[in-house]
Amino acid sequence: MNKFLKVAIEAAREAGAVLRTEHSRPQKISYKGDVDLVTETDKRSEAIVVGRLRREFPDHRIVAEEGSGGASEASRYEWHVDPLDGTTNFAHGYPCFAVSIGLLEEGQPLVGVVFNPVSDELFSTARGEGAFLNEKVIRVSAMQKLATSLVATGFPTHKRRDNVNIHYYWQFTLRSHGVRRDGSAALDLCSVACGRFDAFWEFGLKSWDTAAGVLIVTEAGGKVTDLRGGPYRPGGPDILVSNGHIHQEIQETAAEIATQSKKL
Question: pLDDT value at position 151?
Answer without folding.
Answer: 98
